[in-house]
Design a protein that fits this description.
Blueprint: H1 3-31, H2 38-45, H3 49-55, H4 59-64, H5 73-81, H6 97-112, H7 116-128, H8 132-155, H9 162-187, H10 194-211
Helix pairs in contact: 1-2, 1-7, 5-6, 5-8, 6-9, 8-9, 9-10
């Protein structure tokens, strides 16, 4: 398959996923998540039930916009490859580890294309269905565990090394704070996606200076 054909296919998949998620959020905000079925959602989105489950593992995940399969392989590969070109400090960790992990978070953010309108629609659905908050926490935990395993793999650390989990928890917490700041800033006028990057890197530098 040519690169252009692959790009078109990826774009169509992204558009289909967005259409399903937009409809799921709107229906949930208006009527609650138990007031409609996957079949009804598929009919409105113009997809089959099989197609739906190729994109999302459940109706709840469709509302949250969490894909059935992680789609960040390119960013993960770049993060893992970053160890090869980096020296190692006294603690045995690669010098570029923090910067490369931040770049991984930034890459994911950019690929999401998450807008202020998306945030409003998601928050409206969460307000209507508070139980979705539990699923959000589950996904956050799953993502944290996956990222901890990535850091351990990249750095050659044994499972359970607390340096890996501490780093992931620290950057993850900053990522969530910066996401909130980003949308607050958006409320006062349009901001570019680079604003997220600037805010996150500022937080990282503050943490470095405080913990040095």
């Amino acid at each position: 398959m040519s690169e252009s054909a692959t790009g078109v296919r990826a774009q169509r998949r992204a558009e289909t996923a967005r259409r399903i998620t937009d409809l799921a959020r709107r229906r949930t905000a208006e009527r609650g998540i138990t007031a409609y079925t996957v079949e009804e959602l598929c009919e409105d989105a113009g997809v089959s039930r099989r197609t739906f489950f190729n994109y999302f593992a459940s109706k709840e995940d469709a509302v949250l916009g969490v894909p059935a399969e992680r789609d960040d392989a390119h960013f993960v590969e770049r993060f893992l490859d970053g160890a090869a070109g980096s020296g190692r400090g006294d603690g045995g960790l690669t010098d570029s580890l923090v910067d490369d992990l931040v770049a991984l978070f930034e890459g994911r953010w950019r690929s999401m294309g998450f807008t202020l309108e998306d945030a409003r629609a998601l928050f409206a659905a969460l307000d209507r269905e508070p139980r979705l908050h539990r699923r959000v926490l589950e996904h956050l935990r799953e993502s944290e565990l996956a990222d901890i395993a990535l850091v351990e793999r990249r750095e050659g650390l044994p499972p359970g090394d607390r340096r890996a989990s501490t780093l992931v928890h620290l950057v993850g917490a900053m990522n969530r704070i910066v996401a909130e700041e980003y949308f607050v800033a958006h409320e006062h006028g349009p901001v570019g996606v680079d604003t997220y990057t600037e805010l996150l890197r500022e937080r990282i530098e503050i943490a470095r200076s405080l913990l040095r």
